[in-house]
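Need residues for this backbone.
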């Protein structure tokens, strides 16, 4: 599509309020519109799906100020003068998996994450599905990486000691008239795209395996290679293994600017000092286009997309053991159909969602009841007995798609020493192991780096009492009585496990940091009973007052001093 064609389409829809031009290999959109949905639509009208010619959408939203990045409250010189070979910006699945793979080589690696913990963006706020790739177009980066990466998960999760389940997925249809078309689609995917294990499952077979699937389901496209993993546990495991192999991770660290000379990044400014890297890898998620702009290498735009999930109690998880959704039921206000289903998690809950709603807010993860209700209405078509009464919590994540709906994995186009891993949305969790391998290999070749002979791919997670048999549990408690002190009854988490989390190589001594690592507070009561005990254990371990313990970040105290001087919650 040429620029004249794009401008004709834009003029037809928006008059003379917006325009397009071709500049430095990208399509640049400018103008002003009243609604965010119109800004997004303009970007989509200008985009060629899965193209390497990207849209830079500079259309402003009338009356709105550009969103400012949340900045950490920490201010110090901890990183001043650091000179890593490679600086990785972003502590999500991309940044941490790449950091770990880089430690296979003799390279110094520093990861910056602006939040107080890892995986606080989309990497920790998704459904955790390991996708089969059945709906991806051949020739895209998503398709290129997903088949290879999907088959890596058993070994990867075994090495990193992260739970993984190969569940299988039903993409359900309620109208039998669709059967010939779906059958042809499955054959095409098998013979053309190489998705070899896809097949048709009829309704009787489905309900034999999963009795609570709706009697309205006539058949399904069955993908046995679909699986599930805890996304935040995987990110943390990657990070811990990276640190154990020599990488450094700096939390509460935001990039505030860059010094670029003659197409080379000379310095990266942060709230914790100036860093002088030889190479920069941009894994900044929803802010990746802004990081590219700092590096004078912006050739794409991110348009944030919200997705809301609900977590149901384990009693609901006992009624359904796979992944399923009814195809062809798009929700009101949803411009993109990716995602949305019922998933049995690795921790035996049910997860319902997500939806997909365009938003101008990159960091607003507030959850609204409308999203929950819409998602439930859709998934009750799949499983009629679902009930909102079983919800124990819910969460919202913000994805980071480009207008072309494909990944960006490539060196800088104008700046020589930056590499972009951007536009990472579903199936970014699935593809991460393969992407990380390729990026690390590229960097190793660039530096002429030797293999790190001391690299150890094995990471050991803290023991998980709830998964142990009685004999193993008794032996562990005999060795260390702390494992016999149950702190969280819902998830059977002991004092010993909490102390293990605090001793990890990427220690985040907050209530939420401990929660993400060993699960106190993730059960039915959501920390109503165990949070005070976890707070006390953290305070004792650190040798601080209860008032010094934080829920998630420096800005979130749990216990306050009263006017009389006594600590109050």
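Answer:
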């Amino acid at each position: 599509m040429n620029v004249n064609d794009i401008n004709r389409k834009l003029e037809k829809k928006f008059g003379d309020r917006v325009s397009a031009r071709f500049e430095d290999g990208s399509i640049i959109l400018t103008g002003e519109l009243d609604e965010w949905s119109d800004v997004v639509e303009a970007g989509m009208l200008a985009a060629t799906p899965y193209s390497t010619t990207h849209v830079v959408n500079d259309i402003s939203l009338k009356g709105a100020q550009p969103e400012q990045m949340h900045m950490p409250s920490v201010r110090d010189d901890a990183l001043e003068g650091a000179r890593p070979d490679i600086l990785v910006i972003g502590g999500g699945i991309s940044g941490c998996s790449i950091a770990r793979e880089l430690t296979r080589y003799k390279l110094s690696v520093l990861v910056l994450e602006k939040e107080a913990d890892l995986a606080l963006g989309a990497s920790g706020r998704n459904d955790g599905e390991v996708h089969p790739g059945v709906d991806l177009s051949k020739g895209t980066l998503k398709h290129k990486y997903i088949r290879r990466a999907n088959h890596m998960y058993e070994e990867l999760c075994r090495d990193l000691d992260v739970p993984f389940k190969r569940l299988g997925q039903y993409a359900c249809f309620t109208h039998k008239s669709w059967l010939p078309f779906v059958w042809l689609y499955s054959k095409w995917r098998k013979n053309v795209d190489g998705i070899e294990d896809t097949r048709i499952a009829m309704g009787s077979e489905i309900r034999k395996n999963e009795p609570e699937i709706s009697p309205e389901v006539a058949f399904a496209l069955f993908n046995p290679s679909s699986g599930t993993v805890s996304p935040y546990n995987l990110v943390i495991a990657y990070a811990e293994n990276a640190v154990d192999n020599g990488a450094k991770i700096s939390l509460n660290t935001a990039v505030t600017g860059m010094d670029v000379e003659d197409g080379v990044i000379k310095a990266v400014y942060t709230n914790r000092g100036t860093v002088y890297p030889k190479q920069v890898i941009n894994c900044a998620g929803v802010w990746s286009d802004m990081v590219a702009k700092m590096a004078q290498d912006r050739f794409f735009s991110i348009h944030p997309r919200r997705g809301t999930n609900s977590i149901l109690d384990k009693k609901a998880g006992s009624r359904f053991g796979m992944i399923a959704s009814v195809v062809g039921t798009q929700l009101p206000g949803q411009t993109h159909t990716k995602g949305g289903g019922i998933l049995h998690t690795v921790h035996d809950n049910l997860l319902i969602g997500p939806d997909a709603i365009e938003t101008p807010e990159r960091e607003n993860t507030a959850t609204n009841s409308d999203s929950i209700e819409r998602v439930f209405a859709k998934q009750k078509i799949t499983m009629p007995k679902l009930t909102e009464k079983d919800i124990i919590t819910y969460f919202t994540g913000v994805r980071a798609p480009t207008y072309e709906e494909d990944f960006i994995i490539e060196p800088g186009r104008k700046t020589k020493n930056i590499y972009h891993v951007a536009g990472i949305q579903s199936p970014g969790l699935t593809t991460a192991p393969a992407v990380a391998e390729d990026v690390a290999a590229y960097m190793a070749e660039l530096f002429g780096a030797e293999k790190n002979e001391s690299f150890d791919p094995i990471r050991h997670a803290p023991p998980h009492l709830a998964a142990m048999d009685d004999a193993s549990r008794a032996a562990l408690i005999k060795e260390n009585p702390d494992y016999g002190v149950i702190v969280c009854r819902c998830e059977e988490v002991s004092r010993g496990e909490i102390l293990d989390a605090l001793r990890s190589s990427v220690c985040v001594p907050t209530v939420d940091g401990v929660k993400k690592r060993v699960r106190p507070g993730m059960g039915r009561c959501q920390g109503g009973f165990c949070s005070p005990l976890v707070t006390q254990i953290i305070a004792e371990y650190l040798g601080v007052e209860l008032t010094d313990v934080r829920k998630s970040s420096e800005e979130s105290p749990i216990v306050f001093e009263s006017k009389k001087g006594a600590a109050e919650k």
